[in-house]
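Sharing a chain and its predicted structure for anyone who wants a worked example. Both blocks are below, sequence first, tokens second.
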Amino acid sequence: MKLDDCSALLGDTLVSIVTQRRPLLRLSLAALSCLLSSALPSCTGRIADRPGELLADRAAPEDDATPSGDGAPPDARVPVTPAFRCDPAQTPLELPLRRLGQTQYINALDHAVRAIDGALADETRTAIAPIIDRYPQDQLGASIDGKHGGFSSADQTVQQQHIDLSYDVGVRVGEVLTRDAARIGRVFGACATDGNAANDAQCIDSFLDGFASRALRRPLAAEDRAFYRNAIGGRVAAADLADLVALVLTAPQFLYHVEHGAAVADRPTRFVLDPWELAARLSFHFWQSPPDEALREAARSGALATDAGFAAQVQRLFDDPRTERSLDRFFREYLWLDTLPALDSRVGDAVFDAFRGDVTPTGALRAAMIDDVLASARSTVRRGAPFAALLDDRRSYARDATLARIYRTPAWSGAGEAPMFTEPQRAGLLTRAAFLSTGTSNTRPIIKGVFIRMGLLCDPIPAPPNNAAATPIPMLEMRTTRQVVEALTEADGTPCAGCHSSLINPLGFASENFDALGRARSVQRFFDASGRVVGEAPVNTRSTPLVSGSDPRPTDDAVALSRMLVESNRLQACFARQYFRFTFGRLERPDGSDDCALSRIHDSALAGRPLAEVLRVVAMDPAFRSRSFQ
């Protein structure tokens, strides 16, 4: 079953409830799981010019397209193929109903309670913590092969556990807010405890206009108030008010991104989001949380529905520190940072200890390597630098002393200018320790090559032969890692050669002048089982990475490879795809109906506009301010 079919199946179970704007206390599960599978072409060793284009769909290159010896000079520019072909008449098919992600759900809970009482919000968070700990972690989705990369925002699976826990949370929050008469007075007002039944309806409506309007992210209509009043019999007893809180916190409008929109006259399947829906989409994208009071006021006044008012809010939200945390999440997932393995699992092994020398890897070192990359992304945004600057940012953001020693730079304080790398072979992104470290004494050029090919270029790689992934790369005496990898994966007649010799290995070999802790090197040392050095051999970083099918240039190292990636147009095009997937929680449509939104991001990146502007531009696209129902 396809992902779209699964989403539609789950969405259909709610559609009558959502379109009628009705809450739901418990939702039964329509489907437990769906499996996304896609047929991958066999590996031909051919490279596409457009990112994401299936290799099997392209004609074979001419024989001289991948020379074995000297190629064009490294600074020669190769013509690029346009990445996207925008047709404004097309309407993309969207996910029918998206649920809040785990972080969004937690933030929405806190926002609703904090709006009525900040102190109670802290107490409530503590009270529901054991329940939240059981809430399913969002899994990565929207990757081209279902295994590598992807974004947690694309996890649209709905498990019975999601439903049961949201019910448990609603009940627990209701209990906390109605614990005693004094607390009921704080939360619901004196009218809830004065014994006067004549003002009970007004008392309930007042609470709904405060708490429920923030939880449901829109003003309540008269029929909404009537529904909630009737659901608890119009009573303000503690048990009834607790049920009222639980009803609101299990409503589909709280648990899902519910969007109705207004029909567009000449586009029967296109609907423009109303100001409240747009405010929620904006805040959850940039902040992972519901709209604040300023954004609610812009929706209430109608300012958000104007181009100027909308642009002003986009700028305001982007400048808020909460956006930086959301972008950290994007870059962490875009750059596969959580795939960095544990670095300390082999401490005590004789060979590993001899290899690491005076560097003792720890969990803190792994965290420092990841933060070094995220800090580079933050700096690129703050400095107003273009997207391409992320590839060649040669500043060390190592606050950890051990990582600073690996980089041979002073430790950074976190304030002011970060120190510059002094090693000429330290190219920037591709030579940061997070992309070089393996947790072993051996480098992993195959894994590096797969990340660059799939994560940075958006090229699909066909599945390996059976058991190929289970074959470890051995350490052989007096043979470098590159020599071993080439013998295992590129030998004539092996089923691996087509992919490895063109798609994977050349990209990974470019940074073999760094060891498995990220330290610069010119030779690879060899150890016997006791950890004694028994020899060394020079490393070789020259390769023909075939960044695109029409680019046969060789490169000497990661510095040249980084430059080639930027020049190719394919890096920026893949970034556009990745940011689109993060924003909309799905893969772009293969029919090209998303190309207008993609081209807006891509063109901004390719034009060298500041990365901050590129990251904002997705919200300025008409696709962000509307949705389709088909």
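Comments welcome. DSSP finds 23 helices and seven strands in the chain.
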